[in-house]
Amino acid sequence: MLATTITTPGGPEALQLTELPLPEPGAGQVRIRVEAAAVNPVDLMLRSGAFHQLGMITGPRVGVGIDLAGVVDTLGPDLTDDAADRLTPGTRVAAVLAFSPAESLAYAEYAVVPAADLAVVPDGLSSVQAASVPLNSLTAEQALDLLGPARGRTLLVTGAAGAVGGYAAQLASERGFVVSGLARPSDEAFVTSTGATLLTELPTTPAFDAVVDAAVLEPAAIAAVVDDGDYVGVIRVRPYRAERGITVHTVGFHPDGPRLAGLLERSARGELPVRVAEVLPLSEAPKAHRLVEAGGLRGRVVLVP
After folding, report:
1. Which tens digit of pLDDT belongs to each residue from 118-154?
2. Do 144 and 117 belong together in one domain?
3. pLDDT digits over 163-192, tens only?
4. Domain assignment present for 267
5. 158 and 243 share a domain?
6. Which end of the chain has fewer CB atoms within 10 angstroms, the N or the C?
7. Burial class (CB in 10 A: 0-12, 13-18, 19+), 152
8. In the chain, how many domains are there?
9. 15-62: pLDDT as tens digits
10. How far apart are CA 189 and CA 238, in angstroms?
11. Distance CA 90, CA 93 (A)
12. Among 229, 233, 279, CA closest to 253
């Protein structure tokens, strides 16, 4: 099968389309024929060498990609009865993969995924649309979990028109937070549709009980939190020191098949926005990375084998 791999970290040209053996599912796993894989900033970090520098990748070759949608191809041994009934061959599924230094990940023709991490894709969502949902929606949900009950608190979401921020703004509004979304003036219609109030500049003094920093503004965003408030950042590659009694949380996403199933159902019903900016063939993964690196997209770039 064909898979996108990296042998030497670097720019988009480091992505190589490689012929690899078909992966075999192990105990509790399912092999998926991939129909779509979304491109995420974490993929760019892997490609550029951030995880190599941290010692998380030491092998000669590593696969790329963690968001996928496709069709169940082969069931591995030792599945639970529920998983075997739910994931029959031909079933359409989606998942976010736990990061691992494997030779083949989501940018590939086939991928092996733990059955527990898979969610069935409902009618009404294409594989391209479904692949755009997992990582960002689950990251937003798990970021809000770190804040606990809303209790009417004020919340700033940075990057509120972006992939994680758009989900965070809407889901936080639904939980009862009073949400402001930091975004460009041109994004006002989208931000207000999530239930948030548009903010085009960070406040110059602490103003919010909590911040979900989807735009990774870090010190500038934490300065907007009141004393003894909460700050939630995304996966970090460097430490950040708390101050003024602020609790600093870091959301490190983890796969959650049942929760993803609910988010996909809501997406299929039109309750959560599905935004795809561009669809490219797997062979154009370098172009996809350049598009994401350039920034400013209002939707996902999705690769199709």
Report:
1. 999 999 999 999 999 999 999 999 999 999 999 999 9
2. no
3. 999 999 999 999 999 999 999 999 999 999
4. no
5. yes
6. N
7. exposed
8. 2
9. 999 999 999 999 999 999 999 999 999 899 999 988 777 777 777 889
10. 35
11. 9
12. 233
- 118 and 25, same structural domain? yes
Least Cα distance to 94 among 261, 279, 291, 267 occurs for: 261
Which value, in Å, is the radius of gyration of the alpha carbons in the chain?
19
Shared domain for 281 and 199, answered yes or no, is no
Task: Specify if 106 maps to a domain.
Answer: yes
111 & 201 share domain:
no
What lies within 8 Å, CB to CB, of 223 at 6+ separation is 202, 206
CATH of residue 125:
3.90.180.10
Share of the chain above pLDDT 90, in %: 83
Range of the domain at 141: 136-250
Q: What pLDDT, on the 0 to 100 scale, is given for residue 101?
A: 66
Q: Does 31 lie in the same domain as 90? A: yes
E strand residue ranges, the chain: 2-6, 16-19, 29-38, 62-63, 67-75, 92-96, 110-114, 119-120, 154-158, 178-182, 197-199, 208-213, 225-233, 247-250, 276-281, 300-304
Does residue 58 form part of some domain? yes
Question: 28 is written with which tokens?
Answer: 């509790």
Phi/psi at 31 (5° precision): -90, 130
